[in-house]
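hiii so um. not sure if this is the right channel but i have a protein structure encoded as C-alpha coordinates and i wanna go backwards to a sequence. like what aa goes where. can anyone help
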Protein backbone atom coordinates (compact mmCIF):
# COMPACT_ATOMS: atom_id res chain seq x y z
CA UNK A 1 0.00 0.00 0.00
CA UNK A 2 1.45 3.37 -0.98
CA UNK A 3 0.73 6.69 0.69
CA UNK A 4 0.12 9.73 -1.47
CA UNK A 5 0.38 13.09 0.29
CA UNK A 6 -1.76 15.57 -1.59
CA UNK A 7 -3.88 18.57 -0.62
CA UNK A 8 -3.16 18.19 3.06
CA UNK A 9 -4.56 14.66 3.32
CA UNK A 10 -3.30 11.14 2.87
CA UNK A 11 -4.74 8.89 0.19
CA UNK A 12 -3.96 5.17 0.42
CA UNK A 13 -3.52 3.34 -2.87
CA UNK A 14 -3.60 -0.46 -2.90
CA UNK A 15 -2.02 -2.78 -5.39
CA UNK A 16 -4.93 -4.91 -6.55
CA UNK A 17 -2.63 -7.93 -6.85
CA UNK A 18 -1.41 -7.70 -3.24
CA UNK A 19 -3.28 -9.02 -0.18
CA UNK A 20 -5.43 -6.47 1.64
CA UNK A 21 -4.11 -4.94 4.85
CA UNK A 22 -5.73 -2.79 7.48
CA UNK A 23 -4.71 0.83 6.81
CA UNK A 24 -4.32 1.67 10.51
CA UNK A 25 -2.62 -1.42 11.93
CA UNK A 26 -0.95 -2.65 8.70
CA UNK A 27 -1.92 -6.28 9.30
CA UNK A 28 -3.45 -8.65 6.76
CA UNK A 29 -7.23 -8.96 6.84
CA UNK A 30 -8.70 -12.38 7.63
CA UNK A 31 -11.66 -12.12 5.27
CA UNK A 32 -9.97 -12.15 1.89
CA UNK A 33 -9.29 -14.40 -1.07
CA UNK A 34 -7.62 -13.99 -4.42
CA UNK A 35 -9.30 -14.12 -7.83
CA UNK A 36 -7.81 -13.78 -11.29
CA UNK A 37 -8.85 -10.10 -11.34
CA UNK A 38 -7.68 -9.11 -7.87
CA UNK A 39 -8.47 -9.64 -4.20
CA UNK A 40 -11.95 -9.83 -2.66
CA UNK A 41 -11.77 -8.66 0.93
CA UNK A 42 -13.97 -7.39 3.72
CA UNK A 43 -13.46 -5.96 7.19
CA UNK A 44 -16.23 -8.02 8.80
CA UNK A 45 -19.17 -10.28 7.95
CA UNK A 46 -21.57 -7.35 7.52
CA UNK A 47 -19.21 -5.78 4.97
CA UNK A 48 -18.90 -9.12 3.16
CA UNK A 49 -22.70 -9.52 3.12
CA UNK A 50 -23.13 -6.01 1.69
CA UNK A 51 -20.70 -6.81 -1.12
CA UNK A 52 -22.50 -10.11 -1.80
CA UNK A 53 -25.91 -8.43 -1.97
CA UNK A 54 -24.59 -5.74 -4.30
CA UNK A 55 -22.93 -8.22 -6.65
CA UNK A 56 -26.01 -10.48 -6.66
CA UNK A 57 -28.42 -7.66 -7.51
CA UNK A 58 -29.61 -8.16 -11.09
CA UNK A 59 -30.53 -4.51 -11.52
CA UNK A 60 -28.65 -1.84 -9.58
CA UNK A 61 -30.40 1.17 -11.05
CA UNK A 62 -32.79 2.82 -8.62
CA UNK A 63 -31.47 0.82 -5.67
CA UNK A 64 -29.89 3.06 -3.03
CA UNK A 65 -26.36 1.71 -3.62
CA UNK A 66 -25.01 4.96 -5.03
CA UNK A 67 -25.18 8.53 -3.83
CA UNK A 68 -26.15 11.04 -6.47
CA UNK A 69 -23.44 13.36 -5.22
CA UNK A 70 -19.86 12.36 -4.51
CA UNK A 71 -20.49 8.57 -4.63
CA UNK A 72 -19.01 7.96 -1.21
CA UNK A 73 -20.88 4.74 -0.43
CA UNK A 74 -18.97 1.52 0.24
CA UNK A 75 -20.25 -0.24 -2.86
CA UNK A 76 -19.56 2.77 -5.07
CA UNK A 77 -15.90 2.39 -4.15
CA UNK A 78 -15.69 -1.26 -5.20
CA UNK A 79 -13.26 -1.93 -8.03
CA UNK A 80 -14.78 -1.82 -11.51
CA UNK A 81 -14.03 -5.50 -12.12
CA UNK A 82 -16.20 -6.43 -9.11
CA UNK A 83 -19.08 -4.31 -10.39
CA UNK A 84 -19.15 -5.87 -13.86
CA UNK A 85 -21.90 -8.41 -14.45
CA UNK A 86 -19.55 -10.72 -16.37
CA UNK A 87 -17.49 -11.23 -13.18
CA UNK A 88 -20.52 -11.80 -10.93
CA UNK A 89 -20.10 -15.59 -10.63
CA UNK A 90 -16.39 -15.34 -9.85
CA UNK A 91 -16.91 -12.73 -7.13
CA UNK A 92 -19.74 -14.76 -5.58
CA UNK A 93 -17.54 -17.89 -5.60
CA UNK A 94 -14.80 -15.91 -3.85
CA UNK A 95 -17.25 -14.74 -1.20
CA UNK A 96 -18.41 -18.34 -0.73
CA UNK A 97 -14.76 -19.40 -0.26
CA UNK A 98 -14.35 -16.80 2.47
CA UNK A 99 -17.50 -18.07 4.23
CA UNK A 100 -16.32 -21.69 3.89
CA UNK A 101 -12.94 -20.79 5.39
CA UNK A 102 -14.72 -19.28 8.39
CA UNK A 103 -16.70 -22.47 8.96
CA UNK A 104 -13.53 -24.59 8.89
CA UNK A 105 -11.83 -22.65 11.68
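sure thing!! here u go:
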Amino acid sequence: MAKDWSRGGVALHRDRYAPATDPYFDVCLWLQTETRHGWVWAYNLEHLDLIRRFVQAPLREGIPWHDHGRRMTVVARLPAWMQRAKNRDEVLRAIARIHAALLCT
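oh and Strands lie at 2-6, 9-13, 31-34, 39-42.
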